[in-house]
Amino acid sequence: MTAYCSNALFAPALSLAVYIWHQHLIPDTGYVFIMPETTGPAYLRFPGAPPAGTPLCRLDALPESGARGFLFGEDVNRFDMFVVWRGGKLHAYVNDCPHAHTPLDYLPDRFFNLEKSHLLCGTHGALFRIQDGHCISGPCKGRSLTPVPVHLENDIICIG
Fold it and tell me: For the chain, what are the domain ranges?
């Protein structure tokens, strides 16, 4: 279902802008999660998403084979994401389970199953592949986490 919204609250600089919103029913709750459609990277659909070039942390602040979460904004404009460093590669995702739209980590920076072989949703136990965020087990099997593009700039992990 698609809903159309023209509201200056969502874009103060573009008060006449028209946004296309997609509604997603959250299973077993009756609640609807509404997200705007974008033409850029999918993570930009989430309120408060930081722009490309935003620095996150130094690479050495992220443990090898570890993960770290990052929060931007607050309240309705809060954006929650995490970065995983595994096998010399960086992977980043919006911290939002595609099943119930809850954060994956049940404690700060705890994103893995016990074996540390997969990302784990602490709410419903869904397992996601680290390399692409694809769910292999659980209530959202076949769906994927929303990727956030990241890169290194002088040993600083940056969005984009």
Answer: 2-37, 55-159
Q: Which helix (H) or strand (E) holds 70?
A: strand 66-72
Mean pLDDT, range 58-77, rounded to an integer? 91
The 3-state DSSP composition of the chain as helix, strand, coil percent (nearest 5) reads 10, 40, 55
Sign of CA dihedral 21, 24, 29, 30: positive
Show Cβ contacts of residue 75 under 8 Å, excluding neighbours closer than 6 positions. Answer: none
Q: pLDDT of 146-156, one tens digit each?
A: 999 999 999 99
Asked if pLDDT for residue 12 goes beyond 50, the answer is no
d(CA 115, CA 22): 36
Task: Share the mean pLDDT of the chain.
Answer: 82
DSSP reduced 3-state for 140: coil
Listed range (33-37, 42-46, 91-95) with the worst mean pLDDT: 33-37
- Sign, CA dihedral 85-88-92-98, equals negative
Q: Domain 55-159: what homologous superfamily?
A: Rieske [2Fe-2S] iron-sulphur domain (2.102.10.10)
